């Protein structure tokens, strides 16, 4: 079999570069549904929702929690731009759980629309992190 | 010549000043290292956002978005990023000077100050300050930049501002910080790829919504980046300034010690000659 074609995946946040490797297959949490990207994909720009980037390479799967953002696919390069992203082995489960409880309390106590929207988003992010680990 | 006591007192006071500058230098050096790491870690994202925006922008020419609308600049806002504290050489002065240069020919300007030093300067001179953010501390966070970005974007979309500029200090390296002016709004998507080829993207959901999210992200990130650069620059400027101050103090101590020794010697010589003179008078 000819050598496997690979593509470069980069996950970048404003604070740092989270991931940068040549990989085989990646699933992105697109806003309109999950997108599986193989090498030689047509140019694409997609909004992302809160969810997981799943990387498959050499039989292993790595999950990266992202909190929305964008993905650009071009010339065998997949660039994920997210405000926050954590690899599954970098997530602090206790913190995520604490964040989840905080968000739930805020939702329960009610408040203005903005607070509710914020708490909901925080809750989604926390749940996403917890799901990514387990 | 100053008296021996005066000289001793001055040397002592300079020594304690030197201790302070030395300590400040050490603190700045540590903070600078962290701030520098932050800047360098943040640059890839800023570059990627700019790249993507450039390519998406050139792939969707003719797209209308409030943040892209170019208007005759009647009312212009300047976001000026300075440090909260002084004692960092010409760091704040350079940014302020650059900002004043930009502002002075504009009739209708509003200022948004980030950092106490800039705020104090423009407030004292009666400029029109719309917003001020002081005491933001060591780490610029996305919450704050999001808030500021939202403020100017809302104002821009409501046509209350016709242009928004960002004046900050670029961190070139430890010794060089360059005041920079960047046009924040309207967003001018950078040129696409150097080969000038347009990429035929598939947009998901569509170009308009992508731009609607990408543009605020770009503005927010530009601000975030400016804060990081400014922070790193501040600490390196302070470190350099304090290093200079410490070595100046050392020079001064050397000179004063020399004159103190001279004065002491002169006093001793005088005393001896007085004793000799006195003894001679008795014979």
TrEMBL record, chain A:
<dbReference type="InterPro" id="IPR020546">
    <property type="entry name" value="ATP_synth_F1_dsu/esu_N"/>
</dbReference>
<comment type="function">
    <text>Produces ATP from ADP in the presence of a proton gradient across the membrane.</text>
</comment>
<dbReference type="InterPro" id="IPR036771">
    <property type="entry name" value="ATPsynth_dsu/esu_N"/>
</dbReference>
<dbReference type="Pfam" id="PF00401">
    <property type="entry name" value="ATP-synt_DE"/>
</dbReference>
<keyword id="KW-0472">Membrane</keyword>
<dbReference type="InterPro" id="IPR020547">
    <property type="entry name" value="ATP_synth_F1_esu_C"/>
</dbReference>
<dbReference type="InterPro" id="IPR036794">
    <property type="entry name" value="ATP_F1_dsu/esu_C_sf"/>
</dbReference>
<keyword id="KW-0813">Transport</keyword>
<comment type="similarity">
    <text>Belongs to the ATPase epsilon chain family.</text>
</comment>
<dbReference type="GO" id="GO:0005524">
    <property type="term" value="F:ATP binding"/>
</dbReference>
<dbReference type="GO" id="GO:0045259">
    <property type="term" value="C:proton-transporting ATP synthase complex"/>
</dbReference>
<dbReference type="GO" id="GO:0046933">
    <property type="term" value="F:proton-transporting ATP synthase activity, rotational mechanism"/>
</dbReference>
<keyword id="KW-1003">Cell membrane</keyword>
<feature type="domain" description="ATP synthase epsilon subunit C-terminal">
    <location>
        <begin position="89"/>
        <end position="133"/>
    </location>
</feature>
<dbReference type="InterPro" id="IPR001469">
    <property type="entry name" value="ATP_synth_F1_dsu/esu"/>
</dbReference>
<dbReference type="GO" id="GO:0005886">
    <property type="term" value="C:plasma membrane"/>
</dbReference>
<feature type="domain" description="ATP synthase F1 complex delta/epsilon subunit N-terminal">
    <location>
        <begin position="8"/>
        <end position="85"/>
    </location>
</feature>
<keyword id="KW-0406">Ion transport</keyword>
<keyword id="KW-0066">ATP synthesis</keyword>
<comment type="subunit">
    <text>F-type ATPases have 2 components, CF(1) - the catalytic core - and CF(0) - the membrane proton channel. CF(1) has five subunits: alpha(3), beta(3), gamma(1), delta(1), epsilon(1). CF(0) has three main subunits: a, b and c.</text>
</comment>
<keyword id="KW-0375">Hydrogen ion transport</keyword>
<dbReference type="Pfam" id="PF02823">
    <property type="entry name" value="ATP-synt_DE_N"/>
</dbReference>
Automatic annotation (TrEMBL), chain B:
<dbReference type="GO" id="GO:0005886">
    <property type="term" value="C:plasma membrane"/>
</dbReference>
<dbReference type="InterPro" id="IPR023632">
    <property type="entry name" value="ATP_synth_F1_gsu_CS"/>
</dbReference>
<dbReference type="InterPro" id="IPR000131">
    <property type="entry name" value="ATP_synth_F1_gsu"/>
</dbReference>
<dbReference type="Pfam" id="PF00231">
    <property type="entry name" value="ATP-synt"/>
</dbReference>
<dbReference type="GO" id="GO:0009579">
    <property type="term" value="C:thylakoid"/>
</dbReference>
<protein>
    <recommendedName>
        <fullName>ATP synthase gamma chain</fullName>
    </recommendedName>
</protein>
<dbReference type="InterPro" id="IPR035968">
    <property type="entry name" value="ATP_synth_F1_ATPase_gsu"/>
</dbReference>
<dbReference type="GO" id="GO:0042777">
    <property type="term" value="P:proton motive force-driven plasma membrane ATP synthesis"/>
</dbReference>
<keyword id="KW-0139">CF(1)</keyword>
<keyword id="KW-1003">Cell membrane</keyword>
<dbReference type="GO" id="GO:0046933">
    <property type="term" value="F:proton-transporting ATP synthase activity, rotational mechanism"/>
</dbReference>
<keyword id="KW-0375">Hydrogen ion transport</keyword>
<keyword id="KW-0813">Transport</keyword>
<dbReference type="GO" id="GO:0005524">
    <property type="term" value="F:ATP binding"/>
</dbReference>
<comment type="similarity">
    <text>Belongs to the ATPase gamma chain family.</text>
</comment>
<keyword id="KW-0406">Ion transport</keyword>
<keyword id="KW-0066">ATP synthesis</keyword>
<comment type="subunit">
    <text>F-type ATPases have 2 components, CF(1) - the catalytic core - and CF(0) - the membrane proton channel. CF(1) has five subunits: alpha(3), beta(3), gamma(1), delta(1), epsilon(1). CF(0) has three main subunits: a, b and c.</text>
</comment>
<comment type="function">
    <text>Produces ATP from ADP in the presence of a proton gradient across the membrane. The gamma chain is believed to be important in regulating ATPase activity and the flow of protons through the CF(0) complex.</text>
</comment>
<dbReference type="GO" id="GO:0045259">
    <property type="term" value="C:proton-transporting ATP synthase complex"/>
</dbReference>
<keyword id="KW-0472">Membrane</keyword>
